[in-house]
Amino acid sequence: MATAMTVDPSVAQPAAVATASGWIALLQESDPTLKSHALKKLLECVDTLWHEVAECLPDLEAIAEDADGCPLEMRQRAAAVASRVFFHLEEPTQALRLALDAGEGHFDVQQATPYVERLVAAALDAYCLERRKMLNDDEEPRTSAPMGKRPSQILAAGEVGLPMDQLQALVHRLLESCCAAGKFDHALGIALEARETEKVRDVLQASKLDSGLLKYALSSCVKVVQSKGFRQEAMAVIAECLQKQFDGGNSLAAYDLILVHQLLGQPNPVAQVLTGLIQGSEESSLLALQLCFDLMDSGDQAFVNSVAKKMKEAGDQDKEDLKERWERTEKVLTGGFPSELALSFLHKHSKADRLIMENLKKSLEERGSGGRSSVLHNAAVMTHSYLYAGTTNDSFLRDYLDWMKKASNWAKFSATASLGVIHASHVTEAMHLLQPYLPANPNGDGDGDGGGTPVSPSGGYAEGGSLYALGLIHGSQTGTSTEKREETIQFLRAHLRASHANEVISHGAALGVGLTALGSSNLAIVNELKEVLDTDSAVAGEAAGIAIGMVLVGSGAGNVHNSLPAADKEELMEVVSELKNYARETQHEKIIRGISMGLALMNYGQEENADALIEEMRSDRDPVLRYGAQYALALAYCGTGSNKAIRILLHTAVSDVSDDVRMASVIGLAFVLYKTPERVPLLVKLLLESFNPHVRYASCIAVGIAMAGTGDSESVSMLEPILDDMTDYVRQGALVGTALIYMQQSDTSNSRKIRSFRERLSNIIGEKHQSTLTKMGAIISTGIIDAGGRNCSLSLGSKNGFTKMLSAVGVTLWLQHWHWYPMMHMFSLALTPTYTIGLNKDFNYPKKYEINCKSKPSVFAYPKKLEEKKEEKKKRVETVTLSTTAKEKARQARRRAKEGDKGDSAMDIDASTKDDEGKGEDKEKKEGDAMDVDAKAEETVEKPKKKKREPEPTSFRIGNPARITIAQSEVCEFDLDQRYRPVRSEEKPFGVIILTDSTPGEEEDLGAVKAPSLEPEGETAPPEPFEWVPPPVSSSDGATAMDTTTDAADDKPKEESAESKSD
To answer: Is Aminoacyl-tRNA synthetase there in the keyword field (predicted)?
Structure first.
């Protein structure tokens, strides 16, 4: 008989297996009450049993959409259950669609749960993407895409059936909740991503125009927002807020206000702000000077000229108390003072090592090392110009004129033009310096600065080079004098008009005009250059095409949206249209390349406005036009980091059939990403291993441009294997790229590997079996690594975050030396002097002003100069006669004397031997004494102790002025306890710093800024004429000093004649 089981209540029983099958079954019932109850229970357990509930998703969605048969609460509850199931299935977009139907009761954005946070992110992604589609912005959003998906794979609201009105209401609720919680930066980020200008304004006003938030908004617009159209709208809103701050008496807002208006390309408001500061207090006028120098640092001379013009129209410059302030401001903006500062610093603080050029010249002259190669000779001349760029020191060329005269034809043109690189910005002496080379005056009167001899149609290489040099002198810096620039433009235009018969002079004049009138958008100059183009000369036409691009740089000519002058807009558009047609009709490849590069320069900074022209050039059958399209894309999106531009460039780099086009597309990556340089080595890492040597070369150059002056060890190690590449021009690219990275690096850089790289360069130049192109790369790298007297670096950006137009143009044109070597000179446009100088209100520099540097001195020290090896002459050592030898000789003499018959002779020999013996004994005694003395000296004299190496200080102070590199400025700070303090102490010490004097009554130790003269170093100028009359002094005998002097002078010839007779 079975016994009944008893359950022990003290023992825990296993829990029942959880399942949702019962509640799911109730969904099939027709009774709404049962369905509602089942949905309520499913909502409670869906987070744990979602895998079971997923089977009835169709039923849940049917209930949620049944507006006729189900009440609202039931539909919302079904949508909430289905939304959570989709959330667990990792389908956030579908979950969001149902969550919006569920209503605020089931989807509260204030809850900090994983479900809410993920759906809010999905809502923002979908809303931002939908807003971009509405605004026709095809740029990929920088949003939080789900794992495994790119941002472009997120579906927009319309594609998944999300109601836009509900989505917008949700996003606006998020903005309001963020503002209510004081999270204004979050709200601002949402508004910027969603491209909602009004919401940006609302958020900024809700923060009561917080200065920190305005700075964050400006930074986000520049660095994050990739649509140019919306960026300008958002910055206009920021400008309104900053203007309110400035009008309220906050003068510190002037810096950001000018920055915004400059980004918007609005010179009139900038002029108004500067005028208000100049007319204010003494301190505000100093701030205006500082802002003027910052304005010049951006590298846009045309914009600066517009500001200066507006200031003259708006300001009251006749007031006596403000006259000096206006004069100083004009001196900065249009008077050429910034270029004088740079020129003076580069001249006085040049650390160029002459021995580098001496050794280079020696290596090339050695037999078998390429001494007769015109390629290497030209590269050496260019290296000299890089080493001394802007220093005005051409003593090496003057000392070795015979060596320089080896250049002939176009090498002669290039060598003469190199003087423009050495004397860059030396505008006051430009004409006098180039006087021996300039062609004859086109007017034929022989007067003026251009006087010379007429040039034959087949010659004129030095004359053409001198015109090119004139353009380099005036165009290498933005701060040169506007007056001098205008005079030079007229001079060059006269030669341009008269030189159609000589393509060499036309070439030099066209490049000179383009450099001097850079960015001016002058219609008359463009028409004159087009006339040169119409001559159908290949060499002159290429220069004319590039020059037209330089004159119209950044104007967007040829696009629907452009910044051309209103008066000449239609004519300039017609000229550009003719250029495009001419490029398709001409048979000269050089002319096509010149026009394509000109079109690329016109589209600098245009971003999406240039897309139509770029696409037209990219789809052309001519590879040269496609080549220009890559540079047009790179310059249009320079510094933006645009994903669209990167995608196109990378696609072209692996798909185009032309090697030149692929090379240009890879180099273009460096321009687009220069603000985030660390991304470039990662992008081109695989391209460095490409089978195509052009792609490998371009990858080396791209890494070098992006990482220039950083000394980045990873980039150097990436390029190191390429130094031994099988292809010679790839090795050249690796050498140049590494030299760019090592610019302005000390001997301790990269674990002292820089020293071995310098040695490698000199070894390659001296090796007999290296190819010419590899040697050329080593020679050019020698100049790049120490450019500008070791005081210059390659930098595409200014300290305020602007892309420097001049630097971008310079690098672009310098890269064209692959096709035309005189383009090497354009490198001087990209060189930025890395100096820091503190100036007072009178533009003098206090000598006792110092800056703190929190780093070891060796980290940022100049490299050591080479030491000349001294050859030791071998001296012949005299044979030492030993004392034993003398004794043996004496014995032999005595023996011979005894054997001989003549006694007198024997006596003579004995006497002589005795003398010899005596001398020998004396010598032995002296030697013995000397040995004793030496022994005693060894005992008494102790070996000198080696000095202990003192530990290097961890910080030091920098004088005024001094070189401070871009990397060094990050570890430098102002010492505010000094007498002189900067106007804007929140900035890093770099460039020109305007100082205030805390004790103006005390005596000052000041230095004046002076431009260098053409007098050779070490030769002082003769003194001014003077007349000296000595005062009469009475002597003791009554005669004056004058009489005594006269008598002495009269007696002097007699004494000299007596001495001569005695001799």
So the answer is: no
pLDDT in tens, 100-151: 888 877 887 788 888 888 988 888 888 888 888 887 665 555 444 443 444 4
pLDDT of residue 312: 84
Is omega for the bond preceding 961 within 30 degrees of 0, making it cis?
A: yes
Distance CA 1031, CA 176 (A): 93
Rounded alpha-carbon distances, angstroms, from residue 288 to 39, 252, 255, 270, 930: 70, 11, 9, 11, 80
Residues 6 or more apart in contact with residue 722 via CB below 8 angstroms: 688, 696, 700, 730, 731, 733, 734
Contact 378, 339 (CB under 8 A): no
Strands 991-997 and 835-839, by their bridges, are parallel
C-alpha distances in angstroms, 955 versus 811, 847, 988? 35, 20, 16
Low-confidence stretches of the chain (pLDDT beneath 70): 1-17, 136-161, 315-318, 367-371, 443-458, 870-883, 899-948, 1014-1024, 1026, 1028-1029, 1031-1063
List, as one string, the DSSP characters of 987-1031. S-S-EEEEEEES-TTS---EE---PPPSSPTT-PPPPPP----PP
Q: What is the model's pLDDT at position 442?
A: 72
List the domain boundaries for the chain: 21-250, 337-361+370-516, 834-863+953-1017
The string of pLDDT tens digits covering residues 972-996 is 999 888 889 999 888 889 999 999 9
Cα-based angle 572, 298, 701 (whole degrees, multiple of 5): 85
User: Of 420, 530, 500, 433, whose CA–CA distance to 465 is shortest?
Assistant: 420
* Amino acid 1058: pLDDT: 41
Q: Which helix (H) or strand (E) holds 108?
A: none
d(C-alpha 876, C-alpha 707), whole Å:
56
Q: Are strands 831-833 and 845-846 parallel, antiparallel or unpaired?
A: unpaired
Q: What is the DSSP string of 571-623?
A: HHHHHHHHHHHHHHH---HHHHHHHHHHHHHHTTT-GGGGHHHHHHHHT-S-H
- The DSSP 8-state label assigned to residue 956 in this structure reads E
Do residues 193 and 128 make contact, with C-beta atoms less than 8 angstroms apart? yes
pTM: 0.82
Using an 8 Å Cβ cutoff, are 383 and 875 in contact? no
CATH no. of 337-361+370-516: 1.25.10.10
Distances (CA, A) of 708 to 243, 532, 832, 877: 37, 37, 12, 56
**In one letter, which amino acid is 643?**
N
Nearest to 470 by CA among 511, 519, 505: 511
pLDDT of residue 752: 83
Which has the closest alpha carbon to 606: 751, 786, 352, 803? 803
Contact between 830 and 823 (Cβ < 8 Å):
no
In this structure, the number of other CB atoms found within 10 A of the CB of residue 620 comes to 16
Ramachandran area for residue 900 (φ above 0: left; ψ -120 to 50: alpha; else beta): beta
